[in-house]
Amino acid sequence: MIINLINGCILMIKLNINNKVHEVDVPNDMPLLWVLRDILDIKGTKFGCGKGLCGACTVHLDGKAVRSCTTSVGSIKSEKITTIEGLSKNGDHALQQAWSELNVSQCGYCQPGQIMTAAALLSNKTKPSDKDIDDAMSGNICRCGTYVRIKAAIKMAAKGVVS
Question: What is the pTM of this model?
Fold first, then answer.
């Protein structure tokens, strides 16, 4: 993030989102989630609980999964932000393909956060164990209970067995 100051007043914040620089004029303490959804009209990241407990709002900051509802834009320095829209150009990321192939989604609301959390896991552990998957995904809630299919899709993507 770059903040331009004149006489101590914030004029503009620059955020690198999905490899595109966006300039926003918002308060430093505004949650990244609302900048994405309400200011920039990037709607894939979902609002769940507003307290960072459910995972629906998960995005990446330099590849690390973070909860955008509790991350203020003022806390972002030069990190690159990736949303579900920026994970792949055409929805062809291995996780997105595995999600589709295994029909993981029911209502689909939590799935962007689930996929972003799983993508961060696979970027750090290309062959995650069941425990690795359980640990990484434990903070993501799915009201429909598709946890078994989520785990299967992560394993499928890790093995590269997607069409």
Answer: 0.91
